[in-house]
Amino acid sequence: MGTALNSAQLGGEHPAVKPIKGFRGAGVLEIVDDFDGDTYRAAYTVEFEGIIYVLHAFRKKSKKGTETPKRDLELVRAHYKFAKEAYEAFKAAKR
Fold first, then answer.
1. How does strand 17-19 pair with strand 28-35?
2. Helix, coil or strand: residue 87
3. Closest by CA position to 55, among listed 34, 33, 27
4. Rounded to whole angstroms, how far apart are CA atoms 35 and 48?
5. What's the pTM?
6. Exposed e or buried b per residue across 17-26, where buried means at least 16 C-beta atoms within 10 angstroms of its C-beta
7. Among candidate residues 46, 39, 1, 50, the one with its CA nearest the CA of residue 20
8. 53 with 64: CB under 8 angstroms?
9. Fewer Cβ close by (within 10 Å): the C or N end of the chain?
């Protein structure tokens, strides 16, 4: 996951990254990684100039194939909203 985030910081996109459904135009992406029989995911956004916010990281426990669990999507949405507010405050403070 660190390699994928580093790639994003450098303006690239790692092969383990895909957009999360339901976040159109928000630039919310998901890193998927398998380790020791479990699947881990990390959601982040590149929407804000010069900043990458990691919104949520978790071990996938859903029994529904590759679908991201609803609870985790809700956390990503809440953290995205907070990140957007923090970025707007950051921009306002720089003026």
1. antiparallel
2. helix
3. 27
4. 30
5. 0.87
6. beebeebeeb
7. 46
8. no
9. C
